[in-house]
Amino acid sequence: MVAEASALDLGSADDARLRSLTASVRAAQRCLDGVTTKVGVRAGELADNGRSDGAASVLGSQGSVGTRTAQREAARADLVADVPLLGDAMATGSVSGEHADVLARRTGRLSDEERSALDLDALAARAAELPVDTFDAVVRKAVDAAKADHGLSDTVNRQAASEFRHWFDRASGMGRFSGAFDPECYEGFVAAIESRLTELANTSDEATAKNRNLAARAVHDLVTGGAGGRPSAAVGFVIDRASLQHGFHTNTVAQTVLGQDLPPESIARLCCDAVLRRVALDERGVPLNVGRRYRTATDAQWAAVKALHSTCAWAGCERPITWCQLHHIIEWEHGGRTDLCNLVPLCSEHHHRVHEGRWTIKLLPDRSLEIFRPDGALHEIVPPPSRNLPKLE
Fold this sequence. Notes:
The protein has about 400 residues and is mainly alpha-helical. It folds into 4 domains: about 130 residues, no CATH class; about 60 residues, no CATH class; about 35 residues, no CATH class; about 80 residues, DNA Binding (I), subunit A (Orthogonal Bundle), CATH 1.10.30. It has 16 helices and 9 strands. The radius of gyration is 24 Å and the shape is globular.
């Protein structure tokens, strides 16, 4: 396998060949992850009898891997020892090591009682059906239900772990800052910076609007009050009405605009001093429309889009929704309406790709997005936004 991979020549490969090869490589990688996990499981069995130093030692001793990699693979092995179904799925290539990492990370700190409340076999079966990010959301919901506090203890722990420090680096002659913030604090911080950064970018001669120097100036203005007036910040969040009124339920959606989970208790606290905007959602999208009256999306429509999307809608793009513009699928000047069924958030790069690059996109009724290359060939179909989380049966 190593010899064949080393000799592979893709100089004449077309797009179809690259996609086919990538699919094969991904499947092989998943299978090899399964083999590595089996090695770890067996090393653990030998360690129980005093015949091995354990999974982390065996997996870290070969292939020049780092300690973190070996520890992550050992954690997969520990999990598979308890959930053989997951190991079988990894061995056939239907589940990736990343799926196993999600399950190990989410369940690693549970008590025995909380862990026994989870149907790990059912979760392992779901892993084969879902991409990693969606599977992570499913596991999180299941773990929250098992803990019966809906993420509140995790939020409290993150708040307690938040920190900020600063120092002067004499070698570089620069002041430096470092911090770790809980999701609520982080998003308020980012929202304030992004707002000031946009103001600076619109009045700056810099070639790149979102560069690090402007971001540093934005932070300075906010901290010192140089932005003009009292520094302020806002945290946007998305929660379904039933959770807001009655508390957590099976299909609760409670997230910040950027997609970080918050327990309903924290959102209820934020609502004590907040502007609330009702956005009606159904299983297909958001029926908020202004037709041809306005070209620019309304604040309510932006709120609706943020309720669905936490990032750029383009395939694989993770640029946050706060960096995006709303794009008319059918251009307004060509008769397109400013309706939610005709609007998707695109970052600057992909917005340019559609307009100047002659790529085309089509929004389906469930808000799946079809992306077509300039030659008209289908490039990719993006599934509905991640906020439409699947139900855990």
